[in-house]
Each structure stands twice: as structure tokens, then as C-alpha cells.
Amino acid sequence: MTERVVVVSALVKGEGRQVCVDGESMGAAFSLRGLAEIMRRAGWTDVDEIDVADSPVIEWHGGGPEVWSRQA
């Protein structure tokens, strides 16, 4: 079985962080909770904010799981 890949792109002010699952755009996340919801829609079950922050299947671009807003 091929392991699935989630790519969370760099933050774009006002647009959140774009999320792709296996190369398919799944929309934007504005928080770990939002990312967990996108992953549930993509087929992961029982994931929450803690799970996604530590998930080995997520590639973080432009900052890790703690980056959800631009610092002035």
C-alpha cells in the first residue's frame, strides 16, 4: 500500500495555507483544527489537532504546524 502524502503550503495572508492530498487540492486551512477536518474529508478517521501536528505524512512548507498567522 502506498503511503498518502499531505502537503501544507506556506501561509498566504487572508487565504490560509493551501492543502493538497496526494497531489489534489483540498482547499485552505486556517488552523490545525481546519487541517484535521480536511484530512477527515480525505479519508483519515479519528484525527484531531494533536494528530496532525505530529503526523509523519504531512510535508510542511513555509513553516511548521505552529505557523497560522503572519507576524508583523
List the topology elements:
Elements: E1 6-8, E2 17-21, E3 24-29, H1 32-41, H2 49-53, E4 58-60
Parallel strand pairs: 1-4
Antiparallel strand pairs: 1-2, 2-3
Secondary-structure element string: EEEHHE
Q: Which word captures the global form?
A: globular
State the distance separating the first and last CA atoms: 44 Å
What class, by secondary structure content? Answer: alpha+beta
Query: How is the main sheet built?
Result: 4 strands, mixed
In total, how many beta strands? 4
What is the count of distinct domains? 1
Query: Helicity, in percent?
Result: 10-25%
Query: Strands of the largest sheet, in order across it?
Result: 3-2-1-4
What percent of residues are in strands?
15-25%
Radius of gyration (CA) equals 11 Å
Q: Identify low-pLDDT runs.
A: none
Mean pLDDT: 92
Number of helices: 2
